[in-house]
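This section describes the prediction task in plain terms. A model, or a person checking by hand, is given the sequence of a single protein chain and must write out its three-dimensional structure as a string of tokens. No templates, partner chains or ligands are provided. The sample shown here is typical of the held-out split.
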Amino acid sequence: MDLKTLIAPEVYNIADEIDQYFSEKPALILDQKSGEPTTITYSGLIKRANQLANGLTSLGLTKGDRVVVMTTRLVESYIIYLACLKAGLVISPSSELLRAKDLSYRLNHSEAKAIIAYHPFVAEFDRIEDETPFVQYRIAFGQEVPGWMRMEDLMEGEPETFSTVKTTKEDFAYLAYTSGTTGFPKGVVHSHGWGYAHLRTAASKWLNISETDVVWATAAPGWQKWVWSPFLSILGSGATGFVSNRKFSPHKYLQLLQDYKINVLCCTPTEYRMMAKLEDIQSFDLSHLHTAVSAGEALNREVIDVFKNTFNIQIRDGYGQTESTLLIANLNVDSSKIGSMGQPLLKDFIAIVDQEGNPLPANEVGTIAVRKDFPALFKEYYKDEVKTNDSCRGQYFLTGDRASMDEDGYIWFQGRNDDVIISSGYTIGPFEVEDSLMKHEAVKECAVVASPDPIRGNLVKAFVVLKEGITGNDHLVRELQQFAKKLTAPYKYPRIIQFINALPKTDSGKIKRVDLRKYTGKISLD
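The expected answer:
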């Protein structure tokens, strides 16, 4: 595959990829906790998206306007995303786990004109104390909410046809946020052209989706991974997506895979690890499953072996970032290479480079880098030219992940260049956790690092220096954890808190996080 095949036409809208499958074929199967599943066809999905697109534009929202969307694994999520793309609006995905402080920053930084939220989540928006001067419309769905418009009313009586707004391949489609090591999250801009390139790499090569497949990608809306797989890869391939909003249970997940005869599965390493631990895993029939993939963090060999030995299914690792798409994957897996990240999907665009951006010889450890002309690479960090420029060296964007590449082109992960924590597939910046802990009256100083964990990959660990006269104990550990949960998304809270007399620092006062990651003294667990 060469560069030309990945470049979108000049006039291009991602929604066109889904509209082409307009038919009575099932687009989505929604698992119901009680009763029969709900099915919506491609024609039904597109018609409802058209109604919402008409409703949104009737409010005065126009091409380029930002919309913050907070929803969950529901059919409505697909309708909202498709409607916004068709209307030329820029979607800013927001996880249901975010807190008022997180949302306030996103609303103001993105200059969002509208919010669309599932009704149980609107309370967190209502808790925002800061001014949000750009927001003009607050739209809820699923139930009437005082002070919020009803999405269902916006769609009521609107035509089932809509002329998709003409966007170019360079026009903004998504504004996603990703954690960094310092400061606030970075706004990652993806254009419509990104979606074109993504579909022609990740969906076809890695996920191996055909129009006849039933595909379950477990990611939740609010993350770029949901845009990658459950939304764009599945619907943009004309397949049928399976949707379940149940709380994760390894036993139930295997049951659903069996009952719904899932053909393609995409889930996190943590989910695979927990399924692999079941004593009765061999009692399930996954004979319809032809492809199983994993992304978010490295998957250990033991789990891969369990699925191979039990179901004759080879779980294939994949690697990508919010800033890109899937970049590296195990496709035709060489048994001697299991445990590697795999090979670049497009070898001309991926390299291991030194600090100056120069490609390194085989087996030397450096940074995984992406050529800047790769069409599925982000456009910029929104409103931050400095960070955008600092993320590149020479002709490459630097991912921040260290690895080596062997003589056969397989890449072997070594760790992060920076202090970002990857836990259960979540990307967590230490600054956000430290900022919340520092607001507690007992905390003098703190530093947050990753602590290895066999299930989640890493846990968030906080080293805390208490103010004079305050003694650390189990009660204070739990108090600090609950305090952090209220100020930042729950998945970010420190599962391990260790009280320490002083933080190790350099002569210039910078915290030595490397030393903290090596520290193995007594810990306090929640």
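For orientation: The longest helix spans residues 42-59.
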